[in-house]
Amino acid sequence: MNAEKGILDGILVADFSRVLAGPLATAMLADLGARVVKVERPDGGDDTRAWGPPWTANSSSYFESANRSKESVTLDLGSPDDLELAHELARRADVIVENFKVGGLVKHGLDYDSVAATNPGVVYCSISGFGSAGGAELAGYDFLVQAVGGLMSITGEPQGGPMKVGVALVDVLTAKDATAGILAALYARSASGLGQKIEVNLLSSLLGSLVNQASSYLATGASPRRMGNAHPSIAPYELLECGDGPIAVACGNDAQFRKLADALGRPDLGADSRFATNRARVENRPALVEELEKLLATDTAATWADRLAEVGVPAGKVGTIADGFALAAELGLDPVVDVGPDAPAQVRHPVTYARTPVTTYAAPPRLGQHSDEIRRWLHEEKSR
């Protein structure tokens, strides 16, 4: 759909996925210039079209967050005629992305083995909640995986209950894993001519994203606990109270802490044996926080944020999502792109490419918006 050629120009993606992880992965492929044909049920389409508020002129802002620059065709896989068109689309596709229940496409002849029999070059990405082995029958939802996978156990205040992250983070991480896997498989295909099946699941993507927390468990056998906004291995790396509210301070090394101590008018803290090294600061965190907050209480969070940033201390006032977009714009990151007069703006593709920039974005499609032309195209391909 992109008017200008992108990195994936000429790549056809058949998107049989819905909700977030799969659609977000295919949206990123669309950003890169792939043609993405989104296959939707005639009776309502992607579930997220009904997930509101907020609502848009098209459907919902949730749907629009993961479906830009795609073409929508409605196909009823229970109809022999529509199923035949779905088979033709799969035969033509370079990439197929699906998140049906494990094995759910076998009865339609749209599973990997069936498709690869006539399209050996296909890169076929299956996304599930818990994999295709022991977890094949388990329903996979981001909220559930955040709970059972341990993310909630390390999110929230120490004395509070388990807490989910404020966005469907596991779905997003899985989408990025799926995109990386698809691109790697396309690269491998350029040498062998053969595609392959890729399996991605929410639980594995979550565990792979726990990084230092997972490593801590594997090294010690003890599960990390909730620490609020504090870091288990770095201090100060948390929210600290100023005169009118909190500020985020992230001292990643001893030199930054000494700069912080100097800026607060207490250079002696940088030489104090309790605080001179990161290890000592972590061991003496309560005393450290008490000392720092006494000094920070003398002025506002905004004033301290500016003052600390000027001397090279990573610090900032806690902001809203609106503040985040404003900061990105102020820094020249151009965070928002226009996708047309009848659709809300979208977040810009997060990667900058020096030679092949992402320059074209299209509004998320209305349900079945491209059905007629895609059906004609598929019939034409069948007749060749």
Task: Compose a concise summary of this entry.
With 384 residues, the protein is an alpha/beta fold. Helices cover 38% and strands 12% of the residues.
Fill in the keyword field for this structure.
single chain, 384 residues, alpha/beta, Rossmann fold, formyl-coa transferase, domain 3, 2 domains, six-stranded parallel β-sheet, three-stranded antiparallel β-sheet, 11 strands
Please provide a written account of the structure.
This protein is an alpha/beta fold and 384 residues long. The chain folds into two domains: 12-210 and 334-383, Rossmann fold, CATH 3.40.50.10540; 237-329, formyl-coa transferase, domain 3 (2-Layer Sandwich), CATH 3.30.1540.10. It is built from 14 helices and eleven strands. The strands form three sheets. It has a six-stranded parallel sheet with strand order 3-2-1-4-5-6, with helices on both faces. Strands 7-8-9 form a three-stranded antiparallel sheet, covered by helices on one side. Strands 10-11 form a two-stranded antiparallel ribbon. Strand 1, helix 1 (21-31) and strand 2 form a beta-alpha-beta unit. Helix 1 (21-31) packs across helix 6 (169-192) and helix 6 packs across helix 7.
